[in-house]
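A reminder from the course coordinator: this example appears on the midterm review sheet, so study it carefully.

Given structure:
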């Protein structure tokens, strides 16, 4: 392995001072639980990913990622870097900005403002019901917010059915909670669709769906939710709000969507797909500040698309991760050639 790039983290120093051979770090999960994982001075983020997957008994460690959340910003951790080097980065950045030592301590990884998060990053081979631990710990809690933000295109019947399932997840079999449905609509119905009908109409239809689903458990309701939305083309997609002016035929404000199929540009007003670029057509991509740029190969020529977003670096990292995943799959499936030719 390459040598560490930064001085020891405080957790390592504390372990040495206490003559301890083991260091544990808290890792937060999407279902609002957390686990303690053992790490060492030479643990890389990739090794930690495998360790967490094993500890959780996931069917596969592939497709997950580690993130660092400092205040309101969440950054993906590089797989090839050392875990403790990453934990020092917030402090190092504060030093470079010339902050006082007192201010530096406020962003120390041991404080509450600092979180390490483990979550699903790449959505491939996600089949609801195949891995219940993954479904309940990652897939359900990560997909529900996307649904409620209105990213998916769905019918009224879809919303009635999914609203009934989400209501069961919230109250189980407690039918006395029916009266609370009008106050819970933002937890049951996509935000942009709530105004389609009155609260009482939503209540009536959600109760009807809930009653038809009678007899299922909360866990079964979560799996049923995932099963229904898994057939949608936008299932497992990451959505980013971007602004563009380079393509006159597209709206200025777009959803820049990344999924296992590639990059899609969607009109947020009507949720209509403008274009979809498979990863093998994206020949170059990069981010700088609040700008993201990619070059797409077409049959006629190459087209450059530029957009503005505060999540430019996150977009670049996610595309890079999907491209790397497909490249690794090619290496695995590619027939071995004669080593002398």
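Designed residues:
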């Amino acid at each position: 392995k390459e040598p560490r790039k930064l001085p020891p983290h405080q957790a390592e120093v504390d372990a040495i001072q206490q003559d301890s051979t083991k260091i544990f770090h808290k890792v937060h999960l999407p279902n609002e639980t957390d686990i303690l994982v053992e790490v060492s001075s030479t643990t890389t983020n990739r090794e930690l990913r495998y360790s967490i997957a094993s500890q959780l008994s996931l069917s596969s460690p592939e497709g997950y990622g580690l993130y660092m959340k400092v205040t309101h910003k969440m950054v993906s951790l590089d797989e090839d870097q050392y875990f403790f080097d990453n934990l020092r980065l917030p402090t190092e950045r504060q030093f470079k900005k010339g902050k006082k030592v007192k201010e530096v301590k406020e962003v120390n990884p041991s404080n509450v403002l600092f979180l390490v998060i483990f979550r699903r990053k790449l959505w491939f081979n996600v089949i609801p019901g195949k891995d219940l631990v993954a479904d309940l710990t990652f897939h359900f809690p990560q997909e529900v917010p996307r649904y409620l933000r209105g990213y998916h295109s769905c019918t009224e019947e879809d919303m009635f059915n999914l609203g009934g399932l989400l209501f069961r997840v919230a109250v189980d079999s407690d039918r006395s909670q029916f009266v609370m449905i009008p106050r819970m609509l933002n937890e049951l119905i996509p935000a942009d669709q709530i105004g389609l009908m009155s609260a009482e109409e939503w209540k009536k239809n959600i109760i009807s769906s809930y009653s038809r689903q009678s007899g299922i458990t909360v866990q079964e309701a979560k799996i049923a939710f995932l099963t229904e939305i898994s057939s949608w083309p936008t299932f497992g997609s990451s959505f980013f709000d971007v602004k563009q002016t380079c393509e006159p035929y597209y709206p200025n404000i777009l959803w820049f969507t990344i999924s296992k199929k590639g990059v899609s540009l969607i009109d947020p007003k009507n949720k209509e797909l403008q274009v979809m670029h498979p990863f093998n057509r994206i020949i170059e991509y990069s981010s700088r500040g609040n700008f993201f740029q990619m070059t797409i190969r077409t049959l006629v020529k190459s087209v450059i698309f530029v957009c503005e977003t505060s999540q430019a670096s996150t977009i670049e990292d996610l595309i890079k991760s999907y491209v790397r995943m497909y490249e690794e799959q090619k290496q695995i499936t590619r027939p071995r050639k004669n080593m002398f030719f």
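The CA atoms of residues 30 and 138 lie 6 Å apart. DSSP finds ten helices and twelve strands in the chain.
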